[in-house]
Amino acid sequence: MLFRQLEPRTARTTAEVITFALWPFAVMMVLNRVFIKAINGFITDDYRPVYNASFEFLNGRPVYTADFSSVDPHYLYGPSGTLLIAPVAIIEYELSRWLFIALNAAAILLAWYLILRLFKFGIGSIAAPALLLAMFSSETVTNTLVFTNVNGCLLLAELLFLHLLLARRDLWAGVALGLSIAVKPTLAPLLLLAAVRGQWKVFITACGVPVGLTAIAWPLSKDPEKFFTVVMPYLMESRDYFNSAIVGNGAYYGLPEWLTLLVRVVMAGVVAVSLWLLWRYYRHDELFFVTTFSGVLLTASFLLPSLGQMYYSMMLFPLLMTVVLRNSVLRNWPAWLAIFGFMSYDKWLSDRWQGVGRNLEYLRVTFGWGLLLIVVFCVLGERYLSARREGRLQFGIDPAWMTGKNPPSLAVTAAPRHDDSVAPEVDTREPALK
Description:
single chain; mainly alpha; 0% strand; globular; GT87; cell membrane; EC 2.4.-.-; glycosyltransferase; glycosyltransferase activity
């Protein structure tokens, strides 16, 4: 059956033409990123400190010995993360790194499939190769594999969490989230999503799993307390290198602290209003609400706290996929200009215009995250203001052309003709997106 699908055929529709054209590009992009770029590696090696720490843990030696005054990658996982990831040091470094690359690539591919299923697309749809090509051509997937970090596994955990949350399997959703938090707290903000949906059982396992793993790892570690006394204070500090958060670029460009704080407060207000509008008017549209709310929440968690790195953007793929939904907030060009800023693998460093190129390269991620949040705020705000002006807030804030129906208060009754018959109603609704 598999080989039957691979048999060359002549496309009969435009959709088939595009699908047949995209699949070779997508597959070759995956192979290039996994077997060429990732295996080649780069000067930045996120895996070496993880491997070294795991090796020290397995041999009963101190783990938290990094010199935080250097700009080299440091080992920052907690005792629970050390326990989970320690098996990577059972074999020699190079083979271990290759297997970890394969693990992340497999996790990303499974997450790709889960995104398709979340939005009711199949492998045979045009969305499948388009999404696969977009994911593996992005900076976030490319550098996750090249630098060899754990973000691919975190993306899989996010998709498992979203699927299980929508299926109301709260305890298992908490397990998926808890395992990710045990390694890195990147997805911890998603606990707010469970809270606003009233799915409180998620907290039992989401908090219980990392606490339980920490309790197991504590007596097995030589210096577990140093994670809380040394590593966590470092994580709370903002640095002016490899940091696309507002405070990172503010420090790099020497902005006064009051201005950096003001920008953060304003952006926090933008996020708060967007989240409130989503909860108030969209929480019953579960797929749109869960994917958009989580995307806004995670983008804010990259931009506003002390540290945000470009490849964190991998967690925003579910948000970007909402563009296929009719009421998506991403169906406009400013949104995709923002997405280009933090997803593109292009480099903007210029030999001819060095200052301009450096600024474009260093600021594009920060501006991209910020612009995305502003776009969501403006789209939702415009819908709200229009609905309030037209007196239809009680029916939601989506305009009539988007929902395909008019609220009762706005229904227009046709005047009867002289023969007392009624003019036939014309259905102007847009067909539902498949």
